[in-house]
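Need tokens for this chain, all 470 residues.
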Amino acid sequence: MENDVSFKFHQQLLSISENLVFEDVVALKFLCNDLLHLSKLEGVKAAVDIFKLLMAQEYLNAEDTFLLAELLYRIKCHSLLEKLGYTKEKVQEHLHEKGRVSPYRQMLYELSENITSEMLEKIIFLLQDHLPKRWKISSALDLLTLLEKQGLLTKDNVNILEDVLMKVSRDLLETIDCYKKAKDNKAANFTQVFPELNLQPRGEFSNAENESKTMTSYKMDGPHRGFCLIINNVDFNSCQRKGSCKDADQLERVFMWLGLDVKTYTNLTSEDIVNLMETWQLVQDHKDRDCFICCILSHGSSGAVYGTDHKLVSIRVLMSHFTAKQCPQLAAKPKLFFIQACQGNSIQRPVFLDTDGPTPDSSAVQERVSFFESIPEEADFLLGMATVDGCVAFRHIEEGAWYIQSLCSKLQLLVPRGEDILSILTEVNEDVARRISPSRTKKQMPQPAYTLRKKVIFPIPMAPPPSEQH
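Here are the structure tokens for all 470 residues:
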């Protein structure tokens, strides 16, 4: 019996190891620096090598796999947690009492995740007198490890990081400040002071008002506000998303009024949508702009939107093109995505209303994608969904979608009052939730989620809102 348990445990570890790529192994090695001797870690080639070292030091065994669960959580490999019988939420629940990765190590790893290749080049240049001449540094983790080896960086002395980040990216100094505050206040829970930057669904934004009072704002004073992409999928073979053109027109007018350069694309296939994201990911002009916005109007299903070829595209995949590593020009800048699409099937259609989802097929059950998994787990993203997962999003065939029309209306009303985007989306939630279909049987609730670190406040335009222009 004992041999069976041991065999099954080793099977689990092997399966996890096989699902981890080179970058994951490098991250695991770094997070284990305070637990395992550096000389032993240097010989690690695969994740299973790390597991062996952890077992040898009695950090990991068949009865207690929490450390491995914590490590997978830290490197954001949440899908592998189930192999250990954990969920992301269960790990979060026990981190305070059972977590072994030090606040110092967490802070350094979080920094490494947000240092782009462009930033890294600048940091290496600034530190060239402190670094070995022929030492190859290919990643932020390499650099941090080298600074630790030379004694220039310790849990009690992070001055060298503060000095270079002051010149390269002041935004990242907040990460160090959080660490130092938690360190100074030893009674503080570091996980609370400096949480992992994961998206949390905010259906009601109960704390939005208090948060907005304490948060600083993203810079919105650059030479250009930013690009706004609008993807408007109207024609699906014999089926048309009537009313969607009014939504696209409203979005275009409102975001132009807010100072963005708006580009509208109509009737894109799934491949077209992915290619478009890849193209805009590489646009160098993002560097001189304050933010990026993308609006997608289409049919959809759980965690995805449809191209006009009736093929699904993952929302997470689309957004991941604009992470700090994939699009350095948008690093530390807000990236806002608004999706008007169903996230499930509707059985009964109300009079004069369409739903932005396919006609239900009772012979097949659609697998749902967790709302948490729809978005890159990285700072500075906001995803505004027209509806919660599994539900339909309504669109009037003449007046447009409930969500988009409310979003445009509230932006015009509240931006001139200096409100931030989270407060505005709270108002949108309330407005859409009050609406009811003509048959009085259908309602809708939008669901925003975000990893914004600051308030997004659009500068008040000089011109009157589009609704007041004649």
